[in-house]
Amino acid sequence: MEQDAVTRVARVARVARADGRAAWRVTSYELVAAGLADPRLGLVPPGVPVDERASLFQDGAAHARLRRLVARAFTPRRIAELAPQVTALAEAHVATLVAAEGAVDLVDVLSTPLAVRTLGLLLGVDLAEHARFRGLVEDALRADPRDPAQQVEAARAWGALSAFTIELIAAAGEAPGEDLLAALVAVRDTDDGRLADGELVALVGALLAAGVITVRGGLAVAVIRLLDQDALAGLADRPAAAVEAMVDELVRRLGVEVFPRWAQEDLELGGVAIAAGDEVLLRIEAANHDPARFADPERLCPGRPSPHLGFGRGPHHCLGAALARLELTAALTALSRRAPGLRLAVPVEDVPWHRGEVDAGPLALPVICAPRS
Asked: Which CATH architecture group holds 3-368?
């Protein structure tokens, strides 16, 4: 975590990162929203070349090209087609959770397998049959690349996940189908051109990480939030629009993405002069809890008039937002219906937690499904 280099809270503050380098931290809703949509704040420092392995984590025309290719998998029609299967998966995993005796790990039994199998549906690969994949995800989460003592292990874990991605791509090339993975391997779009090998590996790797790690932790955090405000029981009995509004409010409470941006030119943000090349940290979590925009921000209040930034904004808005909402809705509805008396098996402060720069969530979430006494 970066340490404040100032003693007062400011919407734009100079801070020192864990490695000692200086950056600007932006926390207000207004300025974070503006920064996310500002092309003068890029994901790459000015003058630094970006190779094909950067995947979607780049700017401008290169990013737009890759985004167009992947967006074909996240059309409203495709999400609607997946909905019955995702709902069935959620029901099945919740049934397993409820059938367990005593304390059971919700992350292990529900949130991880649901995220893995849903992504598998999208890609056209039965990831649930790849036991090694779950182990690679666990290793990647437990090794914090921000910790100097764990940087080597983090690099090894993410390298192993990249190797797994290469294997999936090779298999898709040998037996092409109509799924997303096969389509990306075979793309010959006249406007976008064929994906280079490095682009393809990076792109699929990003989908694996975002589609599993983010949903895995996000669902567990959503359960904690609902239990904390006694809002799980009865959720399934509400109209669909009310459930969607609750899920949207939960997403507001989840957003932690802080991919660093770099000023591509001199600019001003909130009255503060930012020089070209300066690093800027747009804190989505802080923006989504800005009391100037969200009254009583710690309280779950479905139907808030202000849109949140949980899925970002601008050119890097999350492509999988609709799919993530579908998974959360299906899982929470099933939990509310089948386990309305769900409760934590340990104090919330004892829950082991992963905190990354772009996501956060429990590594395990022990729960008890027995009815409340």
From this structure: Orthogonal Bundle (1.10)
